[in-house]
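Annotators were shown the component list below and the corresponding predicted structure, then asked to write short factual statements about the assembly.
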Amino acid sequence: MIFLEYISYGRQCIEDDDIAAVVETLKSDFLTCGPKIAEFERDLAAVTGARYAVAVANGTAALHIAALALGLGTGDEVITSPLTFAASANCVLYCGATPVFADICPDTMLLDIEDLRKKITPKTKAIIPVHYGGELCNMDEFTKLAQEFNLSLIQDCAHSLGGKTCGKAQGEYDGMQIWSFHPVKTITTAEGGAVTTNNEELYKKLLRLRTHGITRDKSQYVGEDAPWHYEMHDLGFNYRLTDIQCALGITQLKKLDRFVKRRQEIVNMYNHAFAELPLQIQQTPAWSTPARHLYTIRLNEKQRRREVFDALLAKNIGVNVHYIPTYLMPHYKNIGYKAGICPVAEDAFERMITLPLHPQLSDEQVEYVINCVRNTLFPSPPLSFPM
Ligand SMILES: *Cc1c(COP(=O)(O)O)cnc(C)c1O
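Structure shown to annotators:
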C-alpha cells in the first residue's frame, strides 16, 4: 500500500480557535505593538517556568539578542553542539565571537559534558546546550559546570517546549532560554521565537535589543525626561513579533500538553517497532522528561543510508536528516573549521534518517512508516529455517 498523501516530517496543527483568534486580532486596533504581545509573553513565562519572556520575530533572532545581551564579541568563545540547526552557532558569529563545537553522546545525541569540559579555555564565555530532538540536556550538570568556570548559559530550547530536565522546567535555570515557533516546532506562530530568563537586567536588555535598542522606560534615561523623549542605548534591531502572531501563540500554547502527549505516543510506537531492527534510536536519559520534536533512526550499515532514504521518499514519506554537523557547512569550512572535530556527531549524521513526527499523524500513518522502514531494510520476506 502506498499512501497517496505525502507524509511530511513535521507540520503545524491549526484549528478553528486558532483561526478565530487571528481574525479577531486582525479586526482589532493593534496588528503589532499591542496587548497580545504581553499576554503571550505572560503565558509563555508560565509554561516555561521563567520569570520573564521576550517574544521576537523568530528563534534565530532570539539567539542573536541572547548572545548580544551577554556582550559577546571578538576573541570570545562559545561552546555548542554541531548536531543542531545552524542558528545555534551562527548567533555566536553574528557577535564576532567564535563557536567551538563539543561532541555528542552516541545514545542520547545530546552534548557530551565531558568533551565540552575539555574544550573550555580562558576565552570561553558561554555554553549553548541544545535539547536535541526534544530530549533534555542535564541542566543541573551544565549549571554546575557553568558556575565552576563562570560561564553563561543559553539553552537552545527550540525543540523542547513542554519538556522538563532534572524534574524542573527549563526556564527555572540561570541564564537564558530560546524558543522557536516555526511551523515544524511544537507550537507555531508561523515565524516566531522568544527568549526567557529570570534575570531582570538581561530582561531589560533583551527588551531594548528587540526594538532598535530603544527604551521608553524613564528609569533607564541618561538624558532629559520629556513627553516626547525616548533613548537608544544599544545597537538593536526590529525583531518584534506581531499581535496577529501572538494571538495565534496564545491559542497554540493551550494545546501544548495535547501536542506533546501525541508526539510521545508516536515515539513510543516507533521505539517499540524498531527495537528489533538493526538500527539505533535516540535514548531518553534518566533526567529527561522529553517533549519530542524529532524522531531519527541511525542505520547500523551507513552505506545503506542513501538507498533507504530514497526508498522511503519514493513511498511518500517525508524523510529528512537532522542535521549536517554545522562545522561541515561550506561557510564554516571557509572560515577555517575542518572535518573530524566531533567524530560521534559526524558518525550519527552519516547513519541518520529523520522520520515523520507531528501530532496530526494517524496511527495508520505511523504503522505505514514503520512497515516501510522494515520492508526497506529487509526487502525479501525473512527465510524460515528448519529447526
Ligand atoms: C528551529 C531552530 C532554531 C531557529 O528557529 P527559527 O525560528 O527557525 O529561527 C534554532 N535552534 C534550533 C535547534 C532549531 O531547531
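Statements collected:
1. The first strand starts at residue 52 and ends at 56.
2. The CA atoms of residues 62 and 86 lie 14 Å apart.
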